[in-house]
Write a structure and sequence with these properties.
Mean pLDDT: 97
Bound molecules: nicotinamide-adenine-dinucleotide
Radius of gyration: 24 Å
Number of strands: 21
Strand content: 15-25%
Helix content: 40-55%
Low-confidence stretches: none
CATH class of the largest domain: Alpha Beta
Number of domains: 2
CATH architecture of the largest domain: 3-Layer(aba) Sandwich
């Protein structure tokens, strides 16, 4: 197994190439600085050191990128499926070949622990392979025959699309959004999160090296309020695939209104894990801990609310506290580390502000609740017990390693609390009563629910949330519902009667 020192040495080698010019944009196949020449710095959350400058793109860069995507669209749309598929598979191969570089850069840029990020590149490659296999069927439709007409449907790609991604697991999420767009025949302009630009640049380079024609994949770095906003307002961009906060989704919907943008939103969550007293409590404990503290709790599908039945609550919480106190917080490149630093000071301030908020509202601090070390944005995994559903720690998305435990007595009460949130992304239910599991999941307000399991992704299944957690679904064929237009064509079967006016 490699050590922290080995990983730091390798990282240094990988970062050298970013040092002279920093991270630039990729527009129409050309690597360029921002038109204005402006840059911003990206820093590591481990020690706050600057990694490199990044092009600060604005409206002018977005305009150039959108025009390049529009110019490249007809040829990419019309490229034979087999050829398009080959390029996507080549992208997957190249991602795998650079898996170590991607993992180390991702950890340094975001603070995510290597034990989880070492698989991020492989998952990204898997996204490309999965959608490469769907290229050939993307245009398939139905035959809906009527007495007088042969009605057929087909799907066509919507056009150039904007992809806006957040800083949590940015590599995996970018591939998750971009692979289906390319498979559908769309061209893209990608605006990655300003806090984590490294692996988005590596990914765009990989696409270029894989033989993707110039202009099919454009990358513009910049801030949400300028580059992001300009992308959502650009008339050549037909749709926006967005992953981020619910509040930003709402802004994007307004910004895109004048150009009638189609939007796909994967937004925030405040997901419940509901543990009934008849469950396999050891497995429930493992899953609850994993789903809130892995990925530093910076995970949209995290189980940030623990709903535990009163009959077992003392015992369950005691075991939970013991485990939470033992979670290893440390350098993200140390293979032993389970929780790394939070992404940025801004986010650190937000997460740690809930330590006081929870106490003011009357919850009990049962573990953590403090910073770790005095450099970097490390916090101790935190648990609040004795919470009630209306408290801010039970309602607001904290997006850090902070779990809020709420007790319930009956199934009806558990359901009421589980649904008592503006969000509806995922839910996790632990019970060995099959009928209850059926009844309960049927009434839960969430886009994705797992019973007796943590979140285990299966690419053919629909991914997305209800309520303030999102609009639309990704995964399987659902991705094509967003990136493609349905077209209906009716062919007359014979001489059916046509109404004659003025005859
Ligand atoms: P964010 O909304 O602050 O930023 C996301 C992206 O939007 C960034 O690239 C940002 O630059 C851009 N942006 C900001 N303002 C914009 C504007 N006015 N117009 C256009 N673009 C703009 O989110 P974040 O803090 O980077 O990410 C964390 C959030 O993402 C959490 O709420 C989390 O739950 C959510 N998330 C959801 C899913 C999901 O699948 N549902 C997955 C991952 C993350």
């Amino acid at each position: 197994m490699t050590t922290l020192t080995d990983n730091l040495t390798k990282l240094d080698g990988y970062l050298t190439r970013f040092r002279p010019h920093g991270i630039q944009n990729l527009i129409g196949g050309e690597t360029r600085p921002a038109a204005s020449g402006a840059v911003f710095d990206t820093a590591s959350p481990v020690d706050e050191s600057v990694i490199c400058p990044v092009a600060r793109g604005g409206a002018e860069d977005i305009d150039a990128a959108a025009k390049a995507a529009a110019a490249a669209f007809p040829a990419w749309r019309d490229m034979p499926a087999a050829k398009r598929k080959k390029i996507l598979i080549r992208i997957a191969d190249l991602i795998e070949a650079r898996a170590e570089e991607i993992a180390l850069c991702e950890c340094w840029d975001t603070g995510q622990a290597l034990r989880f990020m070492s698989k991020a590149a492989l998952r990204g490659a898997e996204n490309f392979r999965f959608f490469a296999d769907k290229v050939a069927s993307a245009r398939d439709g139905q035959n809906l025959r009527s007495p007088t007409l042969m009605n057929v449907t087909t799907r066509v790609p919507i056009g150039p699309v904007g992809v806006i991604t957040p800083w949590n697991t940015p590599f995996m999420l970018s591939t998750w959004k971009i692979a289906p767009a390319l498979a559908a025949g769309c061209t893209i302009v990608h605006k990655p999160a300003e806090f984590s630009p490294l692996t988005a640049r590596i990914l765009a380079e990989i696409a270029q090296e894989a033989g993707l024609p110039d202009g099919v994949w454009n990358l513009v770095n910049g801030l949400g309020e300028d580059a992001g906003r300009a992308l959502t307002e650009h008339p050549a961009i037909k749709a926006i695939a967005f992953v981020g906060e619910s509040r930003t989704g709402s802004m994007i919907m307004k910004q895109g209104a004048d150009t009638l943008k189609r939007v796909h939103f994967e937004l925030g969550g405040k997901n419940p894990v509901v543990v009934f007293d008849d469950a396999d409590l050891d497995r429930a404990l493992d899953a609850a801990i994993f789903m809130i503290y892995s990925l530093n709790g910076e995970r949209c599908t995290s189980s940030s609310r623990l709903l535990v039945q009163e009959t077992i609550a003392d015992h369950f919480e005691a075991k939970l506290i013991e485990r939470v106190n033992r979670i290893k917080v440390g350098h993200p490149l140390d293979p032993e580390t389970e929780v790394g630093p939070l992404i940025h000071k801004v986010h650190f301030d937000k997460v740690t502000s809930y330590f006081d908020t929870a106490k003011q509202d009357g919850a009990t601090l049962a573990a953590g609740g403090c910073r770790e070390g005095d450099q970097g944005w490390f916090v101790r995994p935190t648990l609040f017990t004795g919470a009630t559903t209306r408290m801010r720690v039970a309602q607001e998305e904290i997006f850090g390693p902070v779990l809020t435990a709420i007790r319930f007595s009956t199934e009806a009460e558990a359901l009421r609390i589980a649904n008592d949130t503006q969000y509806g992304l995922t839910a996790y239910v632990w019970t060995n009563d099959l009928t209850r599991a059926l009844r309960f999941t049927d009434a839960l307000e969430a886009g994705m629910i797992w019973v007796n399991s943590e979140n285990v992704r299966h690419l053919p299944t629909p991914f997305g949330g209800v309520k303030a957690s999102g609009i639309g679904r990704d995964g399987g064929d659902w991705s094509f519902d967003f990136y493609m237009e349905q077209k209906h064509i009716g062919f007359a079967l014979g001489q059916h009667k046509i109404p004659r006016l003025g005859a």
